[in-house]
Protein 1
Amino acid sequence: MSTKVLEIKDVTVSFDGFKAINNLNFSMDEGELRVIIGPNGAGKTTFLDVISGKTKPTEGVAYFKGQDLRKYKEHEISRLGIGRKFQTPRVYLNLTPRENLDLSCNRNKNVFSTLFKKAPSAEKRTVGGLLETIGLDHKADIPAALLSHGEKQWLEIGMLVAQSPDLLLVDEPVAGLTDEETEQTGKLLMSLAESHSIVVIEHDMEFVRQIARQVTVLHQGSVLFEGTMDQVQTDPKVIEVYLGKETGLTPEQMLLLRIAATMAWADDNFADVQQALILDRLSRKFAHAPEEQAELRSDLQNLLATEIPLEDLVPQLTTQAQREEALMLSYEVISSNQINQTEAIVYQKLLNLLSLPPETVSRLEAAALEELAARG
Ligand code: ADP
Ligand code: MG
């Protein structure tokens, strides 16, 4: 029988009546690397707070390897073998990485904690081995203050590992990192996953795709969906909730975007240039502030990068105005570069599904081309 490293049963966390976690059920096997995603405010950080003992459940129970965590204080839970990495690195800046790791390795462990541990791999526990694992062996003896943001994150991960936890909790490890650092972080977590159970909360979908095996989607304090990244990205519930909430789009706007994205993918050849152009156009159309546009661009890239059959989408358009807008946007998208045969076929299908009068179609197509020309 395999013990669950984590088992969360009917947990609710209320803040003055507001349920940040709402009757949440979750379980995870030992040795798993689990990624938790969900829109802002979904309850992800609170979820980690419950596991690390920072917050006690209002209702329900969280078990770590069968032990009821309600009985322990935060520092006791950490000694039980749950290590948590917060978003901002907490390293000693005036000490070197080696000294930081030395301190963590020597932090006192009581008998209580060692009782529950499997023998940690000797290699990983030595400071030298750890420096290598986190890729800082060549910077081992310079002050940590001189490390990049990413390197500080790795050092802090190393400091957690030095305390040989069984379960690592990691909140948004790649926020603010460069692409290269992000990829390195992914590799580090995957290598640590060989000997630890890990929960990672993350926003960056490309990163999630890099590391994720099993993904749990939180929404309004509960589990909305669980599955592989492919399943997550094609689940309509997830797309709806995720994109809708992050960007404040209405369901109608979202539907239009999904139709346009499906058109863009019609020929299975969503060239980078074309993609950039379309995403830029769509994000400008649906978001105003530059930050919102950037966010929407990446959401679209992440979540609409799958073809959803037009037959499923078009019938959801309820008004004539929406059908007209869908046509115009789609025509704009496919006309943004040379329309090829596949696109033409899919466009024809869209026209059939929309069943707008021919003169309306001509008028909208002309308007779409004008819009394109105006934007250059
Ligand atoms: P996430 O990490 O998914 O963005 P959080 O767990 O931080 O979400 O927050 C979930 C919800 O609970 C949010 O609406 C947040 O405002 C609320 N919340 C979190 N902590 C507290 C608190 N200490 N008091 C009141 N509300 C809180
Ligand atoms: Mg959070």
Protein 2
Amino acid sequence: MMDRLNGPPPLMIVSDLDFTMVDHEDPENLSLLRFNSLWEAYHRQFSLLVYSTGRSPTIYKQLRKEKPLLTPDITIMSVGTEIAYGESMVPDSDWEQCLNPNWDKDIIIQETAKFPQLIPQSDTEQRPHKVSFFLETPNSSEVIKALSERLEKYKLDVKIIYSNGTALDVLPKGAGKGQALAYLLRKFKANGRTPLNSLVCGDSGNDAELFTIPEVYGVMVSNAQEELLQWHAENAKNNPNIIHSSERCASGIIQAIGKFSLGPNVSPRDIKDFGKCRVNVFSPGYEVVKFYLFYERWRRAEVEKSDQNFENLKSSFYPLGTFVHPCGTEQPMKKCTDTMERLYGDKQGKQYQIWLDRVSTSQIGSDSWLVKFDKWESTGEERYCCLTTVLLTTKQAEESFTWMHIHQTWLDGLEAKEPSVWFL
Ligand code: GLC
Ligand code: MG
């Protein structure tokens, strides 16, 4: 993962998932898709995306199947007790080793069993360094107090975290989302890769620790839980680097990027007409994000089917270039533009969405680039994904790219049964 970066990342975002990155009240995932296109167009290449979730690996992977979540560089799971790197999620066993001293899961299970108010969570959520329960709010603080007094007798180094007014986790004292982040920052420092800026994002009790790490910016999203707001009022009220956004979830994260001037903060998804757009961004990553947004709108008939729009599209494809469809057939680019014309509006009124993940660019000549990314597309419940490689060139005088060649292959398990439903 760090090989991708040549130096310190300009920005590291460390975000909680449920009700922070993911808005479970937004069935169309609009704010998440806004974040995705912002991240992939401008930040992916040099910056770091870190998720920090209470979920175990099992239900984290489930969430990734349900929601259009980008692939993070690092995944911190089970309330900061498990850290994994990269796409393949290589576990950090050193971190788990660190959590062993003075941790005795058996004693915790034995002692918590004496509290009838504590209802054990599912087996997937019981982890080597995390024991989790449900606990209803009314007298939760008394239960927590009594439990911690009882555990103190055993001289174990544990901490109890209460989140969402429903969940209680018992963890090693050295664990938690804050400690896991501090550990990562120490590792980066040792490699001379400390991010220039870090932004932590959260909504509930187990996120509070993230806001205690020195020198990070923080955003509590507008929909943050009472327990987090109260913690903030009591502990961090005067810290100007922490805001309570006025927008929900991922939109609140975008708001914080702007507020703290942490880099580009206009999501390409918010640009309704790229032709009229005055921000002239010349970057291959931005180019592919922009194209696929246009393409989504074209098929949903949300852009006008004007000659102008169609000419722009045509002129960005090199007619003699080749497109290799994921099922293996080849066609000239010219045919792509014809198909495209025909597909105008075929997804009108449907929940048709496109997002790109893992956009990476390499310059291969003075005027040519290879851009590689996962192109996702969903219509309601169906979801497909192709690893996509595009060869882009530019003419010095023109501030635009030409698409010379496109090659797609299905990502394992995400192929369309009927290949004709996939076009580009
Ligand atoms: C997630 C986990 C759960 C934990 C809660 C609060 O929902 O699945 O086990 O108790 O976060 O940290
Ligand atoms: Mg949350």
